[in-house]
Design goal:
- The structure is a homodimer of 196-residue chains.
- By secondary structure, the first copy, chain A, is of the alpha+beta class.
- Chain A has one domain: Trna Endonuclease, Chain: A, domain 1.
- Chain A contains six helices and ten strands; from the N terminus they run H-H-E-E-E-E-E-E-H-E-E-H-E-H-E-H.
- Chain A has a six-stranded mixed sheet, sandwiched between helices.
- The radius of gyration of chain A is 20 Å and the shape is globular.
- Chains A and B meet through helix 1, strand 2, strand 3, strand 4 and strand 5 of A and helix 1, strand 2, strand 3, strand 4 and strand 5 of B.
- Strand 3 of chain A pairs antiparallel with strand 3 of chain B, so a sheet runs across the interface.
- Chains A, B: It is found in: Cytoplasm.
- Chains A, B: Keywords: Cytoplasm, DNA damage, DNA recombination, DNA repair, Endonuclease, Hydrolase, Magnesium, Metal-binding, Nuclease.
Amino acid sequence: MNYPNGRKGKGQPSIRTGQKKNDFANRGMTLENDINETNHFYLETNHAVVHKKPTPVQIVQVDYPKRSAAVIKEAYFKQASTTDYNGLYKGKYIDFEAKETRNVSSLPLANIHEHQVEHMRKVLQHGGICFFIIRFSKQEDTYYLPAEFFIQFWDQQFQGGRKSMPITFIKDHGHSIPFTFQARVDYIKIIDKLYF
Amino acid sequence: MNYPNGRKGKGQPSIRTGQKKNDFANRGMTLENDINETNHFYLETNHAVVHKKPTPVQIVQVDYPKRSAAVIKEAYFKQASTTDYNGLYKGKYIDFEAKETRNVSSLPLANIHEHQVEHMRKVLQHGGICFFIIRFSKQEDTYYLPAEFFIQFWDQQFQGGRKSMPITFIKDHGHSIPFTFQARVDYIKIIDKLYF
């Protein structure tokens, strides 16, 4: 039996749930793409060395077909134990997480994990530069929020504080990130202003 | 149809090539495990914040079964574009790659990729601490080799130099890493000696 992708099918083909697959592919895609392009630009121009970490995956089963690449046949998404991005700028360790929301007035804390915040605390303790990049995609506004302020707000939610961070808090404690043609999320500009 | 793992089978079960799977599971396992435990110890004792990056995987197909976790059904290993480990120690960015060999007298350069070396060059340029951890597993000797020396040797292979790094070169330019009960690959000791 032959499938359109040119490979032989074995037994019953698994069902591709197109809709859901798309959801996965697009999740946070715009901000992530912009940051990846920005990091690529920083790398090419020798400004900074910053990479996105690969998505953590628990691999359960791998097939090794003859004369072709190993195929992972069963794997699961794992929760990240750190932030998504880290690297090096002017000798300093930098570390950040990117979050995009379609809300217009606040960022829900629900999709940020406790151990990511713990990681950020440690980075600050050890003298790293740590922050969030937050995009409100409807307004297309992107902010740099130092982790210090994020953590302060985060901790308050356990003492009856809000579960959602208002855009006013982000504007008050953060910095609008300029969009430029080459560096679409030019966060290094903010780091320069704050630390150098 | 029920399989030993308790899940229902669909169609023809894929063949698990036990031998090869084992090879994969064990590849570099000892050194990697030791480094992971060491990093865990550094993290717990608040010495340093260093993590292994997840294995980079190209995800092709994901199933979203009702009432259970998303299952990755088709994915491929990608070549890493950076080193495997990075993090933060006393405010400094650190970055390294771990290699284990069963050879007794040299480390073959074949399983180190050009773009990993390029990454290391950039880390050095930007003021990071960059090195290799190399283990000769038969002797159970583990060395810290500063990336500067590795790169020097690496570049020579393209001018008729050796494709394999002799253990004598590693001993001359590197540092034996002590094995302690809690920090099985106590590389921070070497960093302290070299940089602080």
